[in-house]
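Bench log, entry 3. Co-assembly request; chain sequences pasted below exactly as received.
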Amino acid sequence: MATIMEILQEYLSQTLNDLNTYPFLPRMVAASVLVAIPCSMLSVFVVFKRLAFLGPGICWAAMGGIALGLFCFSHSVESNINVYACTIGFCLFVAALVALTSRSGRIPADSAIGIYVSAGMALGILLNSFPNMHVGDFSHYLFGTILIASQPDLMVVVILALLVAGFIFLLKKDFFVFCFDPIFSKIIGISTGFLHYSLIGLLAITIIVCVKIAGVLLTTSLLVIPGACARLMTMNYGRMFVCSLFVAVFSSILGAVLSISIFPYPPDAVIVLIQFAFFIFLLFIQSLTRRNRI
Amino acid sequence: MTEQPLSHLRSLIRADVNYAPAVCMNNIAVSLNGREVLFDIDLCLEEGGFLGIIGSSGSGKTTLLNVILGLISPTEGSIEVFGGAPNARMRRAIPIGYVPQIQTIPPFFPATVFDMVLMGAYGTRRIGLPIKNEYKSHALSLLAQMKLEHLIDHPIGRLSEGERQQVWLARALVVRPRLLLLDEPFRGVDASGKRCFFNLLFDLKEQFNLTVVMVSHEIDLLTRFSHRIACLNKTIHWHDRSEWRNRDRINHGYKCELKNHLDFEKRMKETDTKLFADSSDPSIHHHI
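Structure output for the full assembly:
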């Protein structure tokens, strides 16, 4: 027992030491927590509306956006901002197409995502193969890593987190009816069109912003796993947001700190695996407590 | 057939005194995807009335309800609900209660019965504000009246079908609507459950002076409770209660649901006798 305490103490002091020696580490922890907040809140709806595929989809569609940006602003490849703006515009355009196509329910959302995303990627590959266009690896425009999050990046995530939290706080109940029974929500005078478009739009913005900072792996996992965990943890809609936030923030802090102490390991992979362990644990508990399911 | 003479008479008298049409349809026709679903529908429903609608599958019953709700706008003709065209703004101002067909709900859906009942009042709240306490207490009193208090904190996914239909009724009534639409509210509910539901519905109708439109296949219960019954088969045929007592006349007069219903009953009786005959067969008992 004493040895465990000693190891823990040593571990903690080591971690604190690391925090002092590497000045970017606190910023990394802050970035992972900040990214976790908007993603985990939206993940409740992602699980309800089966939009888990939207995360990776938008990221792949961004390839087309980057290529298009380079194609249009090739004289100013150095000024990344033009290309980045073009990428954001392209991603929002793809999200809008997905929302528009899946609106009537005739083509389900996941099919719509698959269609537009493959078209966007194909456009990217086609443009990239033009003779004077080859840019090689353009992943650095998009797939950031949480280790090198910059100050303005963090400011953008703070604004995003506030936006998402405010949106959910104001329209929580409307979204509940919308997820549960869209026709009934129309009958009682809640506009389903507005909710549908704003949910997909908000998700697209979150994905674009967070992928730039945290990378595609961490973003897509944060958009699904916390919501799924919350679904297993509680039967109360309001409490689902709290549970989802808890899982995401807790695993972000733990993962970031762990990856600091065993330094060369990538923090996003550690965070995702902790979330996954959380989910498997909850699933196990679930199978113990509810034996006679339908 | 048992009657409810007093209450029924009362509602009729009241309907005559303050005669104001709740729903007024004028020569309505509806086409969906180029197919004519409804035509030549004239319907005027006085406030406080109880209209039953029967009709075979595909006869346009649900479409008719959707027209009243304003979810489908008619291709021809006009409709007024409480003197205005039904649209989203109207539905917020003058709420319409709606009880859907039986729908399946995942057993782990994160909502309690009380959440579900309160959901009916979500349309009335302003953005960001909580739901008024008035609606919360009304939801509680409705659940108490339905004798469902013990289920208030129960997950909605774990109720029986009959209980869930009562919850949907409470959800429809929580905003104190003046018009209540029910779309085949009890497929799969047993006979006593249906009778309970109807009695409850009738009590609530009297209590809140509701106008009720019900689509159902329960002809016996409809004849007992409703003032008028419409047979829908793309267009409407009218029957009043006196006509319904003489079923033979209807049987000859219209080719509508009732005929099928009577045939069905006859066939059921035949198969019943056959079944009983079979069950008296000793060989079956031997197997059991």
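The radius of gyration of chain A is 21 Å. Residues 192-222 of chain A form the longest helix (31 residues).
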